[in-house]
């Protein structure tokens, strides 16, 4: 099965291309590495969820935002590579979680991203990961991720 078929079997699909908020490329290949720029849980140019974890935004909605950010990252990968089958492994994911200073469930939110990549790629979809709490993200998004993949 292709990564897209595995996603579909799990009830997931790649969204339409998100609107870029600046002058950058969504993903860049350098040798055997693919660097994916920051992706948020956006649809039609706007975040589907906004807010901060620990202050009005549920962990479930933060996880949904993280999942959509992961799907947007997969779309960026496919745009550069032509097909997701060319990804050999996810090397590293950084997950930025907009949160209060008392919120401590960053790994739970980050697990939603890992689940998307594991669904698409199997065990090679689980790479190194950091989950970092931040005060602000573009457009008030609760989660932003960046990814390094091996191709």
From TrEMBL:
InterPro entries: Endoribo_LPSP/chorism_mut-like (IPR013813), RutC-like_sf (IPR035959). Pfam families: YjgF_endoribonc (PF14588). Residues 4-131 form the Endoribonuclease L-PSP/chorismate mutase-like domain. It comes from the Bacteria. This is Endoribonuclease L-PSP/chorismate mutase-like domain-containing protein. It comes from Actinophytocola xinjiangensis.
